[in-house]
Each structure stands twice: as C-alpha cells, then as structure tokens.
Amino acid sequence: TQPAVVVLDLDGTTLDADHKLAPATLAALRRASKAVRLIFATGRPTWDVQPFVDALGAPVTCILFNGASCATLRPHATPATRFLEPLGGARAAEAYRIAQTCGGAVSLVLPTRSVGVATNAKQRAQLAALAQHLARGEQQPRASACQNRTSTAPA
After folding, report:
1. What is the pLDDT of residue 73?
2. Average pLDDT of each block of 10 consecutive residues along the chain (155 residues)?
3. In this predicted structure, what is the pLDDT of residue 90?
4. Which of 44, 45, 50, 40 shows the shortest CA–CA distance to 79?
5. Beta-carbon neighbour count of residue 7 at 10 Å?
6. Residue 147, by phi and psi: left (phi above 0), alpha (psi -120 to 50) or beta?
7. Could you tell me which of 129, 122, 125 has the C-alpha nearest to residue 103?
8. Which of 47, 60, 94, 100 is deepest in the core (most CB within 10 A)?
9. Enclosing H/E stretch for 115
10. Taking the model in full, what pTM does it have?
11. CA distance 155 to 151
C-alpha cells in the first residue's frame, strides 16, 4: 500500500548540515511529489520555507511556526501566512512577562520577518552573536558559534 501523504520535517532531517536541499534529496522529493502529497512540518517561518518550495517546483502544504500557522506554498509565488489564532496585544504582553519571569526568549512574528526579543543578558549576548553572523552573510550559524560568543553570567 502506498501512502497518500508524506510529512517531512526540514531541519536535521530533510535538509543537509548546511541547511540546504541536497541534489539527491531534491530529486527524490520531486519524484515523490508526483505520487503523494508532500507536507513540510517545521518551526521555520513562511519566508524561510518558500525557497525550498521554489526549488521543488510544486505546491507544498506547510505547517509553519511550530504549528502556529499553515499554508499551501506555491513555487515562485508570494506566500500568504495564516495564523491559527492571532495572539493579540494583551496576550502578547502576558507571554512576554511569563518569558521574562522564566528566563525564556520571545520571538515576535510579523508578516515578513520574525524578531527575537531578549529577556535577559545571556539572550542579549546570543542575539548579538547571531547579528554578527547575519552581518557576515551567514544564514544560520552553527549553535556552537553562538555558544562560544555568549556570556554565561546570570542575568
């Protein structure tokens, strides 16, 4: 029996160590997309998944933002993101307060980008290290690169 749907995670599974679709993987996905419905399930935002859909050359249903959004992305088309439930100002403020109390970080997801908001000194150092990597044109630094440049002092 052949499956009707194949759900794929991206990071650490479908993508290679450089966060790219290897040529063999892309060829396999193209073959599979002719026989089954492909779904990408990822923590990534829409705009980070669109290039993979463009490379595939076929529409892909996507579960995005760790399940907070879903969309069918089409090759070389402007993606439309639909969130399952907008957070709203009051709930966003409460989420920030809880993250600050627990030492967590906050990611603000806007229509065209997401913004990391630090709630303590360690997170500010990690965001600064990430900004340095991005300024050098690196899309996603390895975790060790950020860890080596961050403070371990308590906030």
Report:
1. 93
2. 88 92 96 93 89 95 85 87 68 78 70 70 79 69 39 35
3. 82
4. 50
5. 12
6. alpha
7. 122
8. 60
9. strand 114-117
10. 0.61
11. 9
